[in-house]
Design brief:
six-stranded antiparallel beta sheet; 12 strands; three-stranded mixed beta sheet; mainly beta; elongated
Length: about 200
């Protein structure tokens, strides 16, 4: 059965120089979303597996950096690519859009990986981290699937959605160096009414 727990993961754009940034929620943390009292019944043990559950096409409330947020087609929407993976694409278009992020779960272990593929627009200019989260409509939960020995299945959803946060990467001003720059203005050149 699900327990009242929330598991969190933060992906930081500071780690983005290689073209993507990723973070994980461990298998143990995902297992802790459930109470461990699953039963295989009289048919005997089969397998325990995991999947992700969310609304395909849901608007995330997120935009790529520099995008015009008054244009609905610029918003990033969830796209279900499999039972174990959701992706965020501009306008939900996995053909002509831009892939912003991927959320995937290892079906066997339950480990969740969140990968950021493109920089997001973080509107708060006074916070160099400016955390962003998925909208409530785009919440992603974990499904635990119990399969007995002859293939019958039962599944249950986590009580709470995964708390996925994307952190900004603020600019850095160059450090000051111990140097002095000088200029001299000579009145010898003042004959024209000014000197510079």
């Amino acid at each position: 059965a699900p327990v009242a727990a929330t598991k969190s993961v933060s992906v930081d754009e500071t780690n983005f120089p290689g073209g993507s940034a990723a973070a994980t929620i461990t298998a143990a943390e995902i297992a802790a979303l459930f109470d461990g009292n699953e039963s295989y019944g009289n048919d005997g043990a089969g397998s325990l597996s995991y999947a992700l559950s969310a609304t395909n096409g849901a608007a995330t409330g997120l935009f790529l950096v520099g995008a015009d947020q008054t244009v609905a087609a610029n918003e990033i929407d969830l796209v279900k690519s499999s039972d174990t993976e959701f992706q965020g694409w501009t306008n939900g278009d996995s053909t002509g859009g831009t892939k912003a992020f991927t959320v995937s779960i290892n079906a066997t272990t339950g480990e969740v990986t969140v990968t950021l593929h493109a920089a997001l627009d973080h509107p708060t200019t006074t916070d160099p981290n400016d955390p962003l989260s998925l909208s409530a409509d785009a919440a992603i939960k974990v499904s635990q699937i119990v399969t007995d020995k002859d293939g019958d299945q039962a599944s249950v959803l986590s009580a709470n959605a995964l708390a996925i946060t994307f952190l900004d990467d603020g600019p850095t001003a160059a450090a000051a160096v111990a140097a002095t720059k000088s200029v001299s203005v000579d009145e010898t050149n003042f004959t024209g009414g000014s000197a510079s």
